[in-house]
Write a structure and sequence with these properties.
It is built from twelve helices and 15 strands. The longest helix is centred in the C-terminal third of the chain and has 25 residues, at 295-319. Strand 14 (323-328), helix 11 (334-350) and strand 15 (359-362) form a beta-alpha-beta unit. Helix 10 (295-319) packs across helix 11 (334-350). The chain is α/β, with parallel strands linked by helices. 42% of the residues are buried. The protein binds zinc ion. The site of zinc ion (ZN) has 6 residues, from loops.
Length: 385
């Protein structure tokens, strides 16, 4: 939205209104007033301003038993667009995501073709240039970048993620800001997956939760009081490196006994191959085997869940969360893992009369949570700080 000034005295109030419409969909003014704690007059003033700018629009009315029917307001789906960039070990994905978390456009390049600083940058520019030629580009309000960590959020830099080709110390934020003259925000992919759950997920009503993403490694993101909590040095949520076994298996981080060495897909496939002597075992085979009640698949995934339970239980003792959301590349095994971990945690909580029963749920997204989360990242940074 060219010319929209989001940084005036009302920024905080605007954030509350826009976030409610982004996360809950169409709402009448009186409900926005209740949700935001703002007077109806204040809501109407903000709504009018945003309607003039094309950010909001009226979209029908609620039925009413008498008197005037309240009109519903919604975000214009083509307003407040994020130029979304996602970089992981599989692919580079660039596209357009709207404030409701809907992907309007996406193009990708396999990561193995872009695994040096220069080639990655050239290809990000190539795909972003393509998006800038889209007529929707006039409604970009920021660029959101998701990347595997470690990152320096303050410096806007990708540091030295392990097993990430030759990519290291890449100042991605300044490169993108200089080229496109849009504010750019960088965040760890797992934190963005957590933020996507908090904004657009089925379980977004939870105020406090831990997101765990399981793939070749294990990452996580923490939502505290509906906000992303990144810790003192931006590393909060790296639950894959919580220790679940004293003097256990060595980890790439230098510690021993990290969760990642027991419950990641890499770890569990290695374990299943060792146990069975069958080197043809893959994660797809194990995940499929669960559905067919295959013994080695069940033992492997039970083991995975057992260590997850230990890590979450320790985390829960410190944070007293409402819930845990488990996502990542679990495919057919997701429901089994979620219910297995849920059972262990909930039976544990029964032993503590005053401890709440923690919710354990599967992710609302297949594999695009981090990409979608870039839209929430833009809103948080533009208005929510
Ligand atoms: Zn570790």
């Amino acid at each position: 939205m060219t010319g929209v000034n989001h940084h005036d005295m009302n920024t905080k109030n605007k954030y509350v209104i826009l976030k409610a419409l982004a996360t809950k969909g169409a709402l009448p003014r009186n409900e926005l007033s209740v949700l935001s704690g703002l007077s109806k007059m204040a809501v109407t003033a903000i709504a009018n301003e945003y309607m003039e700018q094309g950010v909001l629009r009226e979209c029908g009315e609620l039925s009413s038993s008498g008197g005037r029917k309240p009109k519903l307001l919604e975000l214009n789906p083509n307003a407040l667009l994020t130029l979304a960039v996602s970089i992981d070990r599989e692919m580079l994905l660039v596209g357009i995501v709207n404030a409701r978390g809907t992907i309007l456009r996406a193009e990708h390049i396999p990561f193995r073709q872009v695994d040096t600083n220069q080639i990655l940058t050239d290809n990000i520019f190539y795909l972003c240039d393509m998006m800038m030629q889209d007529p929707l580009s006039r409604n970009f309000w920021g660029i959101g970048v998701s990347c595997v960590g470690p990152l320096s959020i303050e410096e806007g830099e990708i540091l030295n993620p392990p097993d990430f080709g030759n990519i290291h110390n890449l100042s991605i934020v300044s490169l993108l800001e200089e080229r496109y003259h849009l504010p750019c925000y960088l965040q760890n992919d797992m934190c963005l997956a957590a933020l996507a759950e908090a904004y657009y997920g089925r379980h977004s009503s939870m105020r406090n939760f831990l997101y765990i993403g399981i793939s070749s490694g294990i990452g996580g993101g923490i939502i505290l009081n509906r906000k992303l909590f990144t810790g003192t040095s931006g590393l909060a949520g790296i639950i894959g490196h919580s220790i679940v076994q004293m003097d256990g298996l060595p980890c790439t981080c230098g510690q021993r006994g990290c969760l990642e060495q027991y419950s990641s897909i890499t770890a569990i496939v290695k374990w299943a191959r060792e146990q069975s002597g069958d080197d043809s075992i893959t994660w797809m085979k194990l995940a499929g085997g669960i559905l067919e009640a295959d013994s080695i698949s069940q033992r492997a995934v039970d083991r995975m869940a057992e260590y997850l339970y230990v890590a979450i239980s320790n985390f829960q003792a410190a944070f007293d969360m409402e819930g845990v959301i488990i996502g990542g590349e679990l495919y057919g095994a997701k429901d089994y893992i979620v219910s297995n971990v849920r059972e262990r945690l909930q039976s544990e909580s029964l032993k503590w009369s005053y401890r709440r029963k923690i919710e354990v749920e599967g992710s609302s997204f297949v594999s695009d949570a981090s990409f979608i989360g870039t839209s929430a990242l833009t809103m948080e940074n533009q208005l929510g700080r």
